[in-house]
Design brief:
Strand order of the largest sheet: 3-2-1-4-5-6
InterPro entries: Nict_dMeBzImd_PRibTrfase (IPR003200), Nict_dMeBzImd_PRibTrfase_bact (IPR017846), Nict_dMeBzImd_PRibTrfase_N (IPR023195), Nict_dMeBzImd_PRibTrfase_sf (IPR036087)
Shape: globular
Family: Belongs to the CobT family.
CATH topology of the largest domain: Rossmann fold
Bound molecules: alpha-ribazole-5'-phosphate, nicotinic acid
Oligomer: single chain
CATH class of the largest domain: Alpha Beta
Number of domains: 2
Organism: Roseateles asaccharophilus
Radius of gyration: 20 Å
CATH superfamily of the largest domain: Nicotinate-nucleotide-dimethylbenzimidazole phosphoribosyltransferase (CobT), large domain
Strand content: 5-15%
Pathway: Nucleoside biosynthesis; alpha-ribazole biosynthesis; alpha-ribazole from 5,6-dimethylbenzimidazole: step 1/2
Number of helices: 15
Number of strands: 6
Order of helices and strands: HHHEHHEEHEHHHHHEHEHHH
Keywords: Cobalamin biosynthesis, Glycosyltransferase, Transferase
Distance between the termini: 63 Å
Length: 347
């Protein structure tokens, strides 16, 4: 498949008239100018993405992409790879953090096996789209072949096409995937690896130093992998590549993309390097505790909504931020203006 067929074109949302109308609507509401703070920027963004002064969020899809990483065998995570499939079972059984939050907020939760090293019994809420049982060790060779990378992106796009609604909430699970995300961040922003690496599932100081050392070697081994797709194939993982496809498709369909933490951010970074207008469709849920996320947010020109010290992933931050999007839409639609409520304007 050529890159042209793989990557949809995504137009820039330049709608000066709608932006002006939205701003006037926000400013006319019964409150001092700007008093709803960053919620006002969120209203503007949602209005522009959905092309309406009174945007409505429909059938939100929380999709958790899961995959295993060959590099995990190098000791870059505090947990063993088996936790990936065990947590997939936990998501489906309703016991994980993201399961609880999805239930609380009526979000449709779909878990996607993008490449977990485990055979799952088919059941509702699980999509088996396995590219392979885990990526290869990125220190020994590329994590995936160019073909596998293209297949994963394409699968992410078609999964999105089949889902209803106009909001995608991104989540992921994959032991070792903070390493893949850090590698992508370092390569695509040309940043020192030490600034991109964090403790992930909870490495101590010595383990963190070892992780930095392993990742530095991986970067050296793949010095030629400088394009977004080249870096994605070199570093992995399947769940990240599938999210790249889902993000591109969601953006092409003008859905709102609610981005979670460090790993989903890496997928958005790759997608944005392929199609910069993707970023106009994104809302960033939170600032993660993972070191490197600050740099990633800068690269994504993102102002996250929450700062709760989260470092979990799964889409838990996206699910927590979801009610703010609902509030933004309701305020645009339902809050009175000075004129409609008969409230005196500023003297
Ligand atoms: C029980 C458990 C539940 C999780 N839920 C998300 N993650 C998070 O941790 C992993 C990334 O960290 P690292 O790169 O250090 O392996 C991902 O699977 C991520 O979603 C979890 C990790 C654990 C252990
Ligand atoms: O920010 C995240 O997404 C994150 C941080 C640590 C571990 N897993 C995920």
């Amino acid at each position: 498949m050529s890159e042209h067929d793989l990557i949809p074109s995504i137009a820039s949302l330049d709608q000066a008239d709608l932006a002006a109308a939205l701003q006037a609507r926000i400013d006319a509401k019964t409150k001092p100018l700007g008093a709803l703070g960053r919620l006002e920027a969120l209203m503007l963004r949602l209005g522009l993405i959905l092309g309406s002064e009174t945007p409505r969020l429909e059938a939100p899809q929380l999709m958790v992409f899961a995959g295993d990483h060959g590099l995990a065998a190098r000791g870059v995570s505090a947990f063993p790879s088996d936790v990936t499939w065990q947590m997939v079972e936990n998501f489906l059984a309703g016991g994980a953090a993201v399961s609880v939050l999805a239930r609380q907020h009526d979000l449709t939760l779909t878990v996607v096996d993008a490449g977990v090293a485990h055979e799952f019994a088919p059941r509702e809420g699980l999509v088996i789209a396995k590219i392979a049982p885990g990526t290869a060790d990125a220190l020994a060779g590329p994590a995936m072949s160019p073909d596998q990378c293209a297949t994963a992106i394409s699968a992410g796009r078609s999964l999105l096409r089949q889902r209803p609604g106009n909001v995608l909430l991104l989540g992921e699970m994959g032991i070792g995937n903070t390493s893949a995300a850090a590698l992508l961040l370092a390569r695509l922003t040309d940043s020192p690896i030490a600034q991109c690496v964090g403790r992930g599932t909870g490495l101590d100081d010595a383990q963190l130093a070892r992780k930095v050392d392993v990742l530095r070697q991986v970067l050296q081994r793949h010095g030629e992998a400088v394009t977004p797709l080249g870096a994605l194939a070199a570093f992995g993982g399947f769940e990240i590549a599938m999210m790249v496809g889902a993000v591109l498709q969601a953006a092409a369909e003008r859905r709102v993309i609610l981005v979670d933490g460090f790993i989903t951010g890496a997928a958005v970074l790759v997608a944005a390097r392929l199609q910069p207008a993707v970023l106009q469709r994104c809302v960033f849920s939170h600032a993660s505790q993972e070191a490197g996320h600050r740099l990633m947010l800068q690269a994504l020109q993102a102002e996250p909504l929450l700062d709760l010290g989260l470092r979990l992933g799964e889409g838990s931050g996206a699910a927590l931020a979801w009610p703010l999007l609902e509030s933004a839409c309701r305020i645009l639609a339902e809050m009175a203006s000075f004129a409609s409520a008969g409230v005196s304007e500023r003297g």
